[in-house]
Fold this sequence. Notes:
Layout: E1 2-7, H1 16-28, E2 33-40, E3 47-50, E4 53-59, H2 71-91, E5 96-100, H3 106-116, E6 120-124, H4 142-154, E7 157-160, H5 163-173, E8 179-181, E9 206-211, H6 220-229, E10 235-240, H7 246-255, E11 262-266, H8 270-279, E12 282-284, H9 294-301, E13 306-309, E14 324-327, H10 332-344, H11 346-360, H12 365-381
Helix pairs in contact: 1-12, 2-3, 9-11
Amino acid sequence: MKILFCNYEYPPLGGGGGVVNAWLAEALAVKHDVTVLTSSAYGLSADEMINGVRIVRVPVYFRNKLQAANIASLAAFVVNGIQRGKQLIQEQQFDVINTHFVIPTGPVGHILAKRAGIPNVLSVHGGDLYDPSKYLSPHRHFFLRLPARYLLKKANAVVGQSKNTNENVHTYYGEDVQCKLIPLGIPRVQFESSARERYQLANEDFVLITVGRLVSRKGVEQLIELMRRMADTRIKLVVVGGGPKKEELEELSVQRGVRERVLFTGQASDEDKVNLLACADLYVSTSQHEGFGLVFLEGMAAGLPVVCYDHGGQTDFVANDENGYLVELNDLTTFESRIRQLLSDRQLKERLSAGSLSTVEEYFIDSCAAKYESLFEASIRS
């Protein structure tokens, strides 16, 4: 097949939605001809091949952060993406378009698919349709829900990566929107025990780790508050990721008196992220909502139990007393008790660690790619 992915963010821009798109594109490129249409910033090449995938980037304006877009850059991608996409479909006859994110990428994939007369498979990531931390989240406003519903209805197939995402589609955009479920996947990597000294972590430390863009929705300030409550010098917190709230969170850790026990790594390379996960004892997240929770799986692949909230796509694979604990949203008291429980009970931690390794076997990228491949083929036939 000749596959065109449309996604306003693609590594090194953006977060998990772009990263998983890259993993999916590279997995499919082993057998198929794959092109990605995305944004350009920070001097990224306008057209290049990476790991078998052709990446075509269009200019966007005023984007000054790798991890976070702004309204101007989103609008520019829609306009410039449609223009460059029309050129691409004249140059090459694609068989299918896979559009990632209803907003802002949705109009691009919809218009290009209609112009080329080929199916458009629309992948929704959760935060593009429902983000409780954002006033401008489409689910809050009729003037945004209406075009989002139109794009969902016009797509040849809609894919959500979790039951929670599909439930939100039905709740806010109509029960008549047909959604398929294809869980995201992560690549298989080799985790090697890394010297904690490299990150100024002692062997006796109990290391909590969280990974993701530092934006309001992630709720990292709650983890800092938990560190204040757990006044145990053995407990350390590693925060992996960059974003607009990084400096604010660093200052908060100073104000709470825990700065020496919190390591902010900033944006980390894949190698550093793997090494840091290998150093940790427990994956934690106080995110207010996750469409899927890709980074939870990365932690589980390193054998880490997970403690997180019970709101979001991670509820598809995090199970109480099997591979971690789901805590009621914003219940910090119970969250703290679960961490202390795992700190004090080594046998429990080892049992949940084994549960994480068992669960994650179903969520590798080869499985995700095979399901997308079947869906693309079915969409083309129909």
